[in-house]
Amino acid sequence: MRPYVMTPISYSCEMINKEALKDEIHYREFKDSTIINKFIDIYKRYEVEPDQDENINTRIRVIIKTKKIKDTLCLGENFNTFINGKKYKDNKEMLIYIKEIIDYENTPRPKRR
Question: What is the DSSP string of the chain?
Fold first, then answer.
C-alpha cells in the first residue's frame, strides 16, 4: 500500500491483497542474490515480542519463499512487525531496507477511474 494513506480501519496482514485493495497494492519480486542475502541476514535477527497483541495497521506485506524459509512478514508504516501472525520486536534496519528496495516513498497513487 502506498505511504501516508489514512484509512477508516486498520488493515490486518491478510487484508493486504489484490482482491481487497485493487489498485492500492503494488507487487515487487526480487531475485537479485545481493538483495536477498542482505534481507535474509537482517531477517534472521528478529526476536519474538514478549508482549503479544494483535494491533497492526499493515502497510507492507512481504512473502518470503526460499528453500529454507516460507514466511509472511507484515509491517506497519513505521512500527509493528508480525511474522506468520506472531508479533516480533521491531527492526528499524529491516523497515528502512524494505522501504528502500521497494521504493516505498514513490509508490504510485492508483489511477482515477
Answer: --TT---SSPPPGGG-SHHHHGGG--------HHHHHHHHHHHTT--B-SS------EEEEEEEE-SS-EEEEEEESSS-EEETTEEE---HHHHHHHHHHTTGGGPPPPPP-
